[in-house]
């Protein structure tokens, strides 16, 4: 017997695809209600972020390879943007998923529907915003001679899956905890502030190895975000750069599978915690 207010977990999301579509449509409409640019903000925000980071890090701090700085990263613009699009997906997905239950409190108190739909719909909305940025990235890569292999494209898909699963699992955890402790929102904000710098979005992974040593690099690679970002670099940046620093040792054979396993474990943990807490959502809200 299933207790009232409980669901079958993420399996109910699969069986409620129509409701999921309605929630995604609602989120898109509400977010851009009264907006002049609407979905174009999906292009504007990452573009501004890219320009700021590129000027500050690529030019001022010398991370872009040039005649005066041969030790920099070649084609740094592609390197930077390929990391930004993925980390932006993660930050938006987790931020919205962690607030999704509280934000939809009025609906949750009125009717019953699988509560996992709310964090999952937040992930899907972030995926919709991710697509226009990917289009820009692919076009930029093509203009710089992008000729990826099947292995590289497959690794990019796995990298995105790792990050999407991580965002889903953490979204379930913080979405549920936020109902009881609103401090969870502030914790997520701090976590997301660190996320960009805790993965090789703005700098090369070799800097971690050179400055902190091999042991620190192993710990650094346990972060699924690091695996996802480096997977995107492998797929989009490396085919456009004549000389690169290469992948971390055993990246494809060891670290990508580890990143996938870690993200799946986070989803399972998130589902377990969500199921334990969802019974009192309506009362707490």
Describe what you observe in this structure.
It is a single chain. The chain has one domain (10-284). Helix 7 (150-180) runs parallel beside helix 12 (251-277). 39% of the residues are buried. The protein has 13 helices and no strands. The chain has helices spanning 10-15, 17-31, 41-60, 76-103, 105-110, 117-143, 150-180, 183-195, 205-212, 214-221, 224-237, 251-277, 281-284. With 285 residues, it is mainly alpha-helical.
- How many DSSP E strands? 0
Tell me, what's the shape? globular
Mean pLDDT: 86
Number of domains: 1
Oligomer state of the chains in this structure: single chain
Distance between the termini: 25 Å
Order of helices and strands: HHHHHHHHHHHHH
The major β-sheet equals:
none
Cα gyration radius (Å): 20 Å
% residues in beta strands = under 5%
The residue fraction in helices comes out at over 70%
Low-confidence stretches: none
Distinct helical segment count: 13
SSE class: mainly alpha
Domain ABC transmembrane type-2: 37-277
Subcellular location: Cell inner membrane; Cell membrane
Membrane topology: Multi-pass membrane protein
GO biological process, one term: lipopolysaccharide transport
């Amino acid at each position: 017997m299933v207790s009232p207010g409980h669901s079958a977990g993420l399996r109910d999301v699969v069986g409620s695809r129509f409701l999921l579509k309605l929630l995604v449509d609602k989120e898109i409409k509400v977010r851009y209600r009264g907006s002049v640019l609407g979905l174009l903000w999906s292009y504007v925000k990452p573009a501004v972020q890219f320009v700021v980071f590129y000027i500050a890090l690529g030019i001022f701090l010398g991370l872009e390879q040039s005649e005066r700085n041969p030790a920099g990263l070649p084609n740094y613009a592609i390197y930077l943007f390929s990391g930004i699009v993925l980390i932006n997906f993660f930050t938006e997905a987790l931020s919205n998923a962690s607030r999704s239950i509280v934000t939809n409190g009025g609906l949750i108190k009125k009717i019953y529907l699988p509560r996992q739909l709310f964090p999952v719909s937040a992930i899907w909305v972030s995926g919709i915003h991710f697509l226009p940025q990917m289009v820009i990235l692919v076009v930029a890569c093509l203009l710089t001679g992008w000729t990826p292999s099947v292995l590289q494209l497959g690794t990019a898909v796995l990298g995105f899956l790792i990050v999407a699963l991580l965002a889903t699992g953490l979204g379930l955890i913080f979405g549920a905890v936020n109902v009881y402790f609103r401090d969870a929102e502030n914790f997520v904000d701090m976590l997301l502030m660190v996320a960009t710098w805790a993965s090789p979005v703005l700098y090369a992974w070799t800097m971690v190895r050179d400055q902190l040593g091999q042991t620190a690099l192993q710990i650094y690679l346990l972060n699924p975000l690091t695996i996802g970002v480096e997977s995107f670099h492998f797929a989009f940046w490396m085919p456009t750069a004549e000389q690169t620093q290469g992948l971390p040792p055993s990246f494809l054979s060891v670290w990508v599978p580890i990143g996938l396993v870690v993200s799946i474990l986070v989803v399972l943990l998130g589902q377990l915690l969500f199921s334990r807490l969802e019974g009192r959502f309506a009362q707490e809200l």
